[in-house]
Write a structure and sequence with these properties.
Elements (H helix, E strand, L loop, with lengths): L12 H21 L6 H14 L3 E5 L2 H11 L6 E6 L5 H8 L3 E5 L10 H14 L3 E8 L8 H11 L2 E5 L7 E2 L2 E2 L6 E5 L13 E5 L2 H11 L21 H10 L3 H19 L12 E2 L5 E4 L3 H13 L28 H9 E4 L7 H16 L2
Parallel strand pairs: 2-3, 2-4, 4-5, 5-8
Antiparallel strand pairs: 1-9, 6-7, 6-10, 8-9, 11-12
The structure holds pyridoxal-5'-phosphate.
């Protein structure tokens, strides 16, 4: 029997080995100039990222959660406001409206792309209007797992219903929609550079993207305690949402090879697709989009088959994960604000979905071994 090494679900170490000279010299410069918060590297990174995404304004902030928070704060979202968002997403998307006193309205998702379902969204808006307890205000489209949300339809619905449209693109920097980088589909886009995201810092950080010059100014003010043009001039109630200079220095070192990383992620996804399409349900592509493959999730027949697949991989020393094991509307902390609407697709995905390792430094040989283990588990005796 071959003595195989373990394949972690994610290994960030090889990337550091590749980029360490640049990372170290960028960080050294920060230790020398000592502008540790919103230093010159932060504005440089904002400029380069805006260019990369083809948007006019980039505002670097302290995390993806803070980016969403600042976006909703700027719109004055609060008690009595309804914020529509997918039921199948990371907890932060729902936590932010709740922390402002607003109410998340959970929307069901597409069973094969896992993205927010526009039909469910229309139904949820109609129902909330009919009940008359909440004022519909915002749609947060989440670009889940690296893929784009169905932006064309979301934009149409937002316009018809006069709702503010936000993109939670925390997982999907580098994905495209209609041949454009994600980042300009909504009125404001939130990004995260949490270490495990496609472009990861070495700590928490995030950004807001927008093409609206007025909002750019407000976001910059809000992230620095509502500051006006002068340092101790407080124009609005803000908070501390600033990016550390060291994170910007690290991100600047990583950005030049990010496109190559994305290409490698797409190659690995194509290998999985090809080998597994007749074995399990592979992720379906959102039309007119290209994924950044932050997560490669497959679907098994039921929870039993999913859990068996997980233990088999784990036994073979192969990392795996479930995003997400529980739909948001059933979470203990959020259940109180849910109106009781059934969200069966999201509920079912939580039982049947699981993610395979996918990161730029994963070798093709390891991908081959993962494929063999998955195939054997389904077809083997
Ligand atoms: C990671 C993530 C966030 C939060 O980003 P942080 O930088 O960790 O605060 C928000 N939404 C989604 C969908 C995420 O995956």
């Amino acid at each position: 029997m071959m003595n195989n090494h373990n394949i972690p679900f994610l290994d960030l170490r090889p990337q550091y080995e590749r980029l360490k000279d640049q990372i170290r010299s960028n960080c050294d410069r920060v230790y020398q100039h000592c502008q540790f918060v919103l230093g010159p590297e932060v504005s440089k990174f904002e400029k380069e990222l805006a260019e990369f995404c083809g948007v006019e304004h980039c505002i670097a902030v302290s995390s993806g959660t803070e980016a969403l928070h600042l976006i909703l704060l700027a719109e004055g979202i609060g008690p009595g406001d309804g914020v529509f968002l997918p039921d199948f997403t990371y907890t932060a998307t729902a936590e932010v409206p709740l922390s402002l006193g607003a109410t998340p309205v959970f929307v069901d998702v597409d069973p094969r792309t896992f993205q927010i379902d526009p039909n469910s969204l229309r139904q949820r808006i109609a129902r909330i209007k009919e009940r008359g307890k909440l004022r519909p205000r915002v749609i947060i489209g989440v670009d889940l797992f690296g893929q784009a949300a169905p932006w064309k339809t979301l934009k149409k619905i937002a316009k018809e219903e006069e709702l503010f449209l936000v993109s939670d693109c925390a997982q999907s920097l580098g994905g495209t929609y209609c041949a454009k980088m994600l980042g300009s589909q909504a009125q404001a886009t939130a990004l995260s550079f949490y270490p495990t995201k496609p472009l990861g810092a070495y700590g928490d950080s995030g950004a807001i993207l927008t093409n609206d010059a007025g909002r750019d100014k407000i976001y910059r003010s809000l992230r620095s305690h509502g500051q006006g043009n002068q340092r101790y001039d407080v124009q609005r109630i803000g908070l501390n949402g600033r990016m550390d200079t060291l994170q910007a220095a690290i991100l600047l070192a990583k950005l030049p090879s990010f496109k190559r990383d994305l290409a490698r992620r797409r190659d690995i996804a194509a290998m999985y697709d090809q080998a597994l399409q007749d074995v399990v349900m592979i992720p379906k592509r959102v039309p007119y989009s290209e994924s950044s493959w932050s997560v490669y999730s497959i679907l098994l027949r039921d929870q039993q088959q999913r859990d068996a697949m997980r233990s088999c991989l784990t036994k073979a020393g192969i990392g795996n994960a479930v995003y997400y094991p529980q739909p948001l509307h059933t979470q203990p902390a959020y259940n109180f604000c849910h109106d009781g609407q059934d969200l069966p697709i999201s509920q079912n995905l939580a039982q049947c979905i699981m993610a395979l390792p996918l990161y730029p430094d994963l070798s093709s040989r390891d991908v081959g071994r993962i494929i063999d283990v998955v195939k054997n588990q389904i077809t083997g005796v």
